[in-house]
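BUG: 3D viewer hangs when loading the predicted structure for this chain

Environment: internal workstation, default settings.
Expected: structure renders.
Actual: progress bar stalls at 90%.

Input used:
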Amino acid sequence: MPRSGSRALLFLALLYVVGASTFLLVRELRRTEPQALRADFATPRDLEALVRKVDAIDEQMRRAFADLKANDERQRDDARETSLRLNALSDLPRVLGETRNRVDDLDAMSKALATKTQLVRDEVEAARNELRQLRGESGISKPPPEAPAIDLPPVVPARSPEEAERDRLVAEYVATLANKKAANGVRYNAAVSLGELRHPTAIPALIEALENDPYDLVCRAAAWSLGMYGKDAIPAIPALIRQLGGKDGTVGYMCERALGDITKAATGTAVSFGFDSNANQRARKKVQKDWEEWWEKEKTVLLPGAG
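Structure tokens produced before the viewer hung:
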């Protein structure tokens, strides 16, 4: 817990002790004779007012302790998610090393295949030349039809190590995001990483996570990542619109932010209908309806074939 949180907790604990002592004192005084209290201390009405104040202080302290406990739980969750991401990053050098070795092996195999293919072509060409010479020596004026050319497979250039590693990471993160049994922090990390990689094949997986993942933080990360894809994420616009009126206003806010990024990349101007994550659900559904009407007018322009 931060130092400021520890000081606040110490202050509240001290305040609680003072309040409790006052409460016990008042309770003890109320056991005395009313006549003595009126003569020596205060009226019963004053004591009742004091008791109410003590009760109010006690209630405030209970609420403060509850807020501190909730804040501590949030900080613990953040620490766990940070630890998960750090563990994943610490394992990345080993995975990269293994991938580079596999890419080097594939590159060597591709070069060997290209060499063998060239040797076969040279042998075919030499056989054709020998056949031509035989035809000339035998005096055949009209050579027979040549044998059909051998259809050799084209030589496919080897992919660069960076492209191969990017494809591998995208496939791994897509599988992780689809695995609902994976930890929330691991799925969140996969959604963010797919936004950073910006591989178009990951867009369907991000749409699926946005609409169906049970953890709101993963949904927000999926919406953010879709916004990173720009105009490539135009097919995700209907899914983003559907989340604007949901129960979680922060998910809706991230969805409209993504919609603004996508429309700006596609048309040059970011579209916005003033979504407020703190507004009630009825107001957020009104913004969702505005977006739906806009999409009905613009979808044939932005997404040809979407009738």
